[in-house]
Amino acid sequence: QQQQQQQQQQQQQQQQQQQQQQQQQQQQQQQQQQQQQQQHQQQHQHQQHQDYMIPSDSMLHYEDINTSTTSSINDNNQLLATMPRRQKLRYDGDNYTPKWVRFTGHLKEGYCDSCQPGKWLQLKNSAYWYHKQFYHGISSVSGKSFMKPLEQRMGKGDMIEGLCHQCHRFVSACNGKKKNNYMLWYRHAHKCHLYDKPKATSKNVRKLSNDTITPITTTTTDTALSLSPSSSSLTLYHHHHHQQQYHLN
Known about the structure:
Layout: H1 2-51, H2 75-82, E1 85-86, E2 100-104, E3 107-112, E4 119-122, H3 127-134, E5 152-154, E6 159-163, E7 170-175, H4 183-192, H5 221-226, E8 234-237, E9 243-246
């Protein structure tokens, strides 16, 4: 009987030890999962911070950087390439050209400082350019905001119409249900309005990239007015070097 009791006690002790080991393993697994979750959250927050971060003094790099994408490029050059650097504008007061650019791998991005907070957008696929024109209403020619409607009125449904100073017609400006959304007006202004292109502040204006739009040739207002109203069209060069014709009314 004593031997049986001892065996039972030993079995109970072994079971207790096994239970303790299982509990310890579960605790370790939980700790590992928590650490992984924390690391994932930190990485996500860091990525968000990078995407929407306003460049600070410690991140600025004013000189041109050789951003070769060959396999021989070292980590230091890659780090320098990803650092935001200041870019020359076409002329003073140019709100269309990005003041800050950076490389992320093979992509070049421009920093939109009109957004609050600011954010980075690709230049190659024209995401930055369309964002500036049709979200913030910045003219690619003048680098300034499009002129606002001379007056507004209610149109069909919830549509608000604006009177254009260029064509003297009421056109759809925005949807009354969507506040501060004047994308329709900006699209009309982009096609219809004529603006003078300011003179460049320097002869050597840095190109934004080899495959994004650079200069935009346009006709000034005085030249446009010298054309007869029945004259066919005015040709402008726009994104991706496509030609678009904008009719004069």
